Amino acid sequence: xxxxxxxxxxxxxxxxxxxxxxxxxxxxxxxxxxxxxxxxxxxxxxxxxxxxxxxxxxxxxxxxxxxxxxxxxxxxxxxxxxxxxxxxxxxxxxxxxxxxxxxxxxxxxxxxxxxxxxxxxxxxxxxxxxxxxxxxxxxxxxxxxxxxxxxxxxxxxxxxxxxxxxxxxxxxxxxxxxxxxxxxxxxxxxxxxxxxxxxxxxxxxxxxxxxxxxxxxxxxxxxxxxxxxxxxxxxxxxxxxxxxxxxxxxxxxxxxxxxxxxxxxxxxxxxxxxxxxxxxxxxxxxxxxxxxxxxxxxxxxxxxxxxxxxxxxxxxxxxxxxxxxxxxxxxxxxxxxxxxxxxxxxxxx
Length: 349
Ligand code: SAM
Ligand code: SF4
Ligand code: FES
Prior knowledge:
Layout: H1 3-13, H2 18-25, H3 29-47, E1 50-53, E2 55-60, H4 86-98, E3 103-108, H5 116-129, E4 133-137, H6 143-151, E5 156-158, H7 166-172, H8 178-190, E6 194-197, E7 200-201, H9 208-220, E8 225-226, E9 229-230, H10 247-260, H11 270-275, H12 279-284, E10 290-291, H13 298-303, H14 317-330, E11 334-335, H15 343-348
Parallel strand pairs: 1-10, 1-11, 2-3, 3-4, 4-5, 5-6, 6-8, 7-9
Helix pairs in contact: 1-3, 2-9, 3-10, 4-5, 9-10
Bound molecules: S-adenosylmethionine (SAM), iron/sulfur cluster and FE2/S2 (inorganic) cluster (FES).
């Protein structure tokens, strides 16, 4: 099949073989543009022109894990650590609501301080006091924790599998297991959460074959939202000398995933905007329909350093809210109103 036929197949059936995905990942010039345009058309047809905003609350920079790529890894003794208390988290959620957000994402390192009881109390309190959907992004927990969080009102869960290459996964995640991560994702799905997962692009040792497998694994897990972004080396990690991930490949992955999961939510990530000043705009033009601005105070933003050079780090939350809205409008799109539930999720109910 030639490129045109592969694209037609993707558009009409939302299915591609691994070899077809690999071919799309290597497109250049006009053919690459055809892929982006088709993904944009698919986005328009299935999820429309709304871009939904998620208010990101990074509530703890402590982490018990040691992922090779991440500035929050426990071995990084220079990382600045903080924990937000319940009242403060609820207050930020309230502020996010006042700025117009209808989803908050509670994200942290894997921090055992936030026991099942503490997390349940935070979720319950936000749900009682603020009219928002809650996405959790707090890593691997026991089944009973996921169940309890769901029972007290958590709506969505975001956890990337990072790479589908098991060997690479084990190398980059000491003390963790790929199998456990996948099991957690399946539990999360079985509990009725909207499931978000995805991977990092440009990890050292990752091949085009791996990326095609990553895309297929997102489809196999039937993700309601897909978070993918380029790897950015952090100077205080073992990967400090590695190359950063490619913006071009990230955009191609977004486009292919839009074709394969036409009604799922796909963010244009902060990491994409960090490597390319127009990265988020480009993502929104080739399949993405979500942006996740940080709503924390500046001092916390500075301390949650996954990678250096993060955009918006010196901007306060109100400024980002206005800035992102003008970006969306400049693209001929509009800010979505309401919770912005994944249509993929809704269709299955
Ligand atoms: N601890 C939770 C977890 O790992 O799922 C949630 C927080 S973690 C900081 C969120 C995401 O940040 C990870 O899934 C990872 O893909 C991304 N991340 C970490 N270090 C990064 C880096 N150096 N460059 C780009 N993304 C990175
Ligand atoms: Fe911890 Fe998540 Fe960073 Fe891994 S990616 S070190 S689990 S915060
Ligand atoms: Fe933060 Fe533009 S979105 S300054």
